[in-house]
Amino acid sequence: MHRGDGLPHHEIGDQLHRIADELTDRFQGVFSAQTVRRFVAETYDLLDAGATVRTHLAALTARFARQRLTDLGRLTGLTTVTVPQVLFVCVHNVGRSQMAAALLEHHAFGKVAVRSAGSNPLGVIPNTIVDALGELGIPLTRGYPKPLTDEVVRAADVVVTMGCGDACPVYPGKRYLDWQVADPVDAPMETVRVIRDDIDRRVRGLITDLRD
Prior knowledge:
Elements: H1 9-26, H2 33-50, H3 57-75, E1 85-90, H4 96-108, E2 113-118, H5 127-134, H6 150-155, E3 158-161, E4 175-178, H7 189-211
Parallel strand pairs: 1-2, 1-3, 3-4
């Protein structure tokens, strides 16, 4: 593990052990403690590799490891699947895919499971993107860049790529969409609004397709 967030080695180790213990309890009867510990350690390293701010790295590790284990349970049939799952992928997972995921969560009212990831996750979500979504009453306070992992692709029913080329692995039986959407990162606010509205129209259309 890199464990480079400035905390003493033993403190970071203690935090990861607590996370593993909590997730072991959460997934009791689904995954072994060994599997959970492995996922927590791997998740920390994945996030640490692309992190520019490490202040909340342990908390993000807990959230992302829980999501990854949920997806692993979904694709292996160990947990109950009740709604379709959509994965949005862009390059850094700080722009297009974050906007799309937030918009889908907002419009789907819990009837779709939503994921987002980056083929090369890096940086932080720009304030213009947060503000543009805030204008629609959609908070993006919990968004953070996440790497593209195998289980999140395999657990998805629909994979939407947004400017990441062929970085996303292709599995049979899944629906793949490629949305040609401009990159809002570093764009002026008026441009970000146009991109937001473009993604919003596409998301609403996707919801209609999922209902059919």
